[in-house]
Amino acid sequence: MTSTDATAAGPRRAGVWNLPNVLTMIRIALVPFFVWFLVADAPGLRSGAGPWRWAAVAAFAVAIYTDKLDGDIARSRNLVTDFGKIADPIADKLLIGSALVMLSLLGELPWWATLVILVREWGITALRFFVIRYGVIPASRGGKLKTVVQTAAIFLYLLPLGAFAPWLVWVAFAVMMAALAITVWTGVEYVIEALRLRAKGRQAGTAKGQEP
User: Fold this and answer.
1) Does 25 have pLDDT greater than 70?
2) Residue 26 CB neighbours (<10 A)
3) How far apart are CA 105 and CA 97, in angstroms?
4) In angstroms, rounded to a whole number, what is the distance separating the alpha carbons of residues 153 and 140?
């Protein structure tokens, strides 16, 4: 079949094994290595600043870059798949969640901050599935901003800033607090949107049931 024939037949459905999905799988595969690097640099879970810590920073940076790259490629080449829609956010939450938990285990990040972010992230994911029969809650600008600020905060925490200038640790903490505020704020927004979507869906269902 020529390219002209393929075009006339309509767009082909993207398969699971395409570059964006492979990049997503690589991001998931990087998570255990990232965790191991942090553990290897901190025997006894005492935070260190050795070469394995820098390896963890590099693994996190590569994983975050694949997140941007797979999305850009999927949209530009029309390779968006159902697998990608499910696997991509799971990969993001695994990476962000493991980073937060490890930072708390190492005593660098308060556990309450990690728990608030994790409860919000997994809670909103569960909420999306709960109201999916009424419609899909789209990602908001605030949600995208939340991801960017969370990533920046974690990256700053991962860098052994204390070894260079102790005051930079407070910069990382300030960015993390900003990420926490945006996380809570967008979480409330998503809950409100879910309630509206559910109410609208129930009204439509009631109206349809009353039709003769």
Assistant:
1) yes
2) 14
3) 12
4) 20
Computed over every residue of the chain, the mean pLDDT equals: 81
**Alpha helices (H) in the chain, listed in sequence order:** 3-8, 19-40, 51-76, 82-105, 111-130, 141-158, 168-210
Q: Closest Cα to residue 179, out of 108, 120, 92, 101?
A: 120
- For 196, the token pair is 């509206």
- How far apart (Å, rounded) are the C-alpha atoms in residues 147 and 36? 24
Nearest to 40 by CA among 59, 27, 26: 59
How far, in Å, CA of 145 to CA of 186, rounded?
9
CA distance 202 to 208: 10
Please measure the distance between the N-terminal and C-terminal CA atoms of the chain and give it in whole angstroms: 51
116-131 pLDDT, tens digit each? 999 998 888 888 788 7
